[in-house]
Automatic annotation (TrEMBL):
Belongs to the YkuD family. GO terms for molecular function: glycosyltransferase activity; peptidoglycan L,D-transpeptidase activity. This is L,D-TPase catalytic domain-containing protein. It comes from Microvirga lotononidis. GO terms for cellular component: extracellular region. Pfam families: YkuD (PF03734). PANTHER family: L,D-TRANSPEPTIDASE, L,D-TRANSPEPTIDASE ERFK_SRFK-RELATED. Keywords: Cell shape, Cell wall biogenesis/degradation, Glycosyltransferase, Hydrolase, Peptidoglycan synthesis, Transferase. GO terms for biological process: cell wall organization; peptidoglycan-protein cross-linking; regulation of cell shape. InterPro entries: LD-transpeptidase, LD_TPept_cat_dom, TAT_signal, TAT_signal_bac_arc, Transpep_catalytic_dom.
Length: 236
């Protein structure tokens, strides 16, 4: 899973899925699946979910972000399990406020707020065989980063070759609106926390080891995360 700079194997979707989704080579999941979720959502409107956020509130939190360089559309929150909506939760830890803790087994990312609380975000994580654990830190940050597929990926997925020179930032770029690059001992680990526009990916293992948050959640986390922030990846 070697990578150059910002690329798919740094944690976006696995190579085949990523290129197909972002380059528009295949459709998203079946219409029937989306329709069923949409019908179920009708019953949630105005109701409080088990995690405390109403469907209406989630629609506001994950609404469009028009003032971005590339305006971000609203999330179809009917396609996200309510337990993955952003939430302030109790979280006892000795880690300093600001620390990011990734819990891949449960598809959550926590930002420690202090006083026994944390902001919790739903996430997608590495698929089986690509999950990892350990301590890292944010070595650099980027808004609307360029994505460059690694040579290893191009060999496996020749259709990615057209991006060998880099894909500029934008809504179709796998890294999305914000990227946190994870480092250890001064070296880039090849993993990122990135912004995903795929609502259906939250709560699943689809990447090559990186961690994706919904764009609105990633913007929220990014704005509160300086370079050198400690990041802990828990065992899956």
């Amino acid at each position: 899973m070697m990578m150059n700079g910002a690329n798919v194997d740094t944690g976006e979707t696995d190579e085949g899925t990523l290129v197909r989704r972002r380059a528009g080579l295949i459709n998203r999941r079946s219409f029937l699946l989306g329709s069923a979720a949409g019908v179920g959502a009708l019953g949630l409107a105005g109701c409080v979910t088990s995690d405390g956020m109403s469907f209406a509130e989630a629609s506001r939190v994950y609404g469009p972000v028009p003032d971005e360089k590339f305006p971000i559309p609203a999330v179809d929150v009917s396609k996200v399990d309510p337990k993955y909506y952003r939430k302030t939760v109790r979280y006892e830890t000795k880690e300093a406020p600001g620390t990011i803790i990734v819990d891949p087994a449960n598809y959550y990312v926590y930002r420690i707020e202090g006083d026994g609380s944390a902001t919790r975000y739903g996430a997608n994580v590495g698929r089986d065989g690509f999950r990892w654990s350990g301590d890292a830190y944010v070595g650099r940050k980027a808004e609307w980063a360029t994505w460059t597929p690694p040579k290893e990926m191009i060999r496996r997925q020749p259709e990615a070759a057209k991006y060998a020179g880099g894909m500029p930032g934008g809504l179709d770029n796998p890294l999305g609106a914000r990227t946190l690059y994870l480092y250890q001992n001064g070296a880039y680990t090849l993993y990122t926390i990135y912004a995903s526009s795929d609502a259906e990916s939250i709560g699943s293992g689809i990447t090559s080891g990186c961690v994706g948050l919904l764009s609105q959640d990633m913007i929220h986390l990014y704005s509160r995360t300086p370079v050198k922030t400690k990041v802990i990846i828990l065992p899956a």
